[in-house]
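Question (not urgent): is this output format expected?
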Amino acid sequence: MALEQLSDVVQRCQALPEDCYTPEDHEIFMNAMRTCIMEGNSAQVLSIVLDEKNLDIVRCMGWNLLPPLVQILLQKEDQNLPHCLAIFNHLLETCRPKELLIGLLEQLEQDDPDVIAESLHLLLNPLQKVLLCLGSRKASFLGMALSSVLDQVTKLPLPQTKEQEEDDVFFLCRCLTDLMAFFRPFVQEARQNINNSKVLNESTKMTGDGPEKPFVDEEDELRAELLKFCMKALSHLLLEIQLRDPDDLTVSPLRNFASEILSSLAAIGEPLQSLVCRPLLRRKEVSGFLEEEVRYPEESLASLAHLVFVHHLAAEIFPAVFSPMYSLRCNMEHISILLSRMEESRIQKGLELYEKSLVRVEDNDLSAELLQIKTFLTVPQSLVKVMTLCQRQDLRAKGLKVFQLSIDKFDTEAKYNFFHFMLRASSHSGVEGYIIRNVKNQIHMSLEPGHANSWFHGIQLLPLLRKILSLPDGPETDLLHYLDRIMESLNLLRYLIIRDKVTENETGIWTELYKIEDTFMKPLRVGLNMSRAHYEKELSNTTQNKKSRVKEDSEISVSVCDGKLPNMTPESQMEALRSALHTFDMMESVLVRIEELIMVKDNM
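Got this back:
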């Protein structure tokens, strides 16, 4: 039946010009052809398609056969495969390129990762041939195709281990290899256009025939579409992938794809050094088809910087003349973008980029003037969030390591100002305690013979000490919440009293001590007494309740410091209360020791 319908519509259309085909003719031809192919009559369909008398019909309506053909070609084992492949190839040679392009892109839209990989492998080469047939009109269609292909690639799972990449278990490596082969000719064309334009411009300058015009619209549009693709590949794909070092994996299609993207950018007239350093360049109008934010997305530039400075890709085309300081300044904006995101892949890359940028800088080499640049303050704040909120322990540990590394690179004035800022901006006791420990280390260094400096020695130090040696809320401060900060403050005060002699008073601690007693030690003593009394009462109540009527496996709720501890068994509740009382004892023991040391020094 389908063959009869197909024969009738073909005979009728052979006698008509192309523009006289009716919608009914299109529908009958499409349905009959598809049915014949799906029913196994592909040999008859091939003979009709190859018949010279049907050339106009096939050119006009043949692209509608792509869905059943692709379905069979993807199955690979169908007995009609040779006939279907011949039909497919003939359609590529005969049908109108724009219609073929639409049809091929429709067949790329898949959801199953296995089907996605096979579809890309089958269709990318035909898609490339169709685009090349469009000549100078292809730029916008190329952009559409590249976007669709990349959207499909990003649906594939990423290899998480070396073995998964080597075995290409998710077919991502094969797809990226196919994708490189797909867009390479268009990059080469754009490069050739640039070279031709340069030659033309030089010739124009020499002859004086007219004004310099570097690019015609078509060439500029092709470059714009390739640039959009490269930027999207950097942010939507490469920012998610963890590349492996060559020592770990000698042959890596993922690393090869990243290198190809970077070399393609350079080839189309986008020097990598200019892209990396864009945050330092004064914004100006850029000619072309794209607005600057679309042309150079922040995450894409950050991904590019990570590939260049962490993985050292495109080293042969990236200048090595940038100083470590300049590289750090260029990368701070990229680091800030990466660390401000929630995704762990971006956080990891931000930490890696910051570490690589810092290690090349000498210790104590970053001046206080840099703290006037916004990112030199926002990046440490993002690091604090990583250290305290990130779910992955390795990233928290890495964040702390990089945080300390950044402190080590500041000179003494910058360290002093940075500590002031972090104590004011931080709301985390552990971070504040870590800063205070760094302050103690700097003071210790300044007290060593020959290492005195004006920032951690003498009168300049006192404002920082006043900030450290205080309780945030006076006697009502939540001592458990601020445990790390209070203990480090006590340790610093004890160190100063032991290390700094009354007669020398190098740190100014002895002239400031009466204020410290009023703002820190006495309120802390009152707070300890209040907290201990409260927790001892709660412990007594819990013990009495357990003895009188609470069963072993029941749960109770206890109020502490205007809040409720989580429901837990009486034993667990009593253990938590005893732990709190032990903490108060620990604080008080250090406080008592400080008071004894002060008394001894006063009597000397």
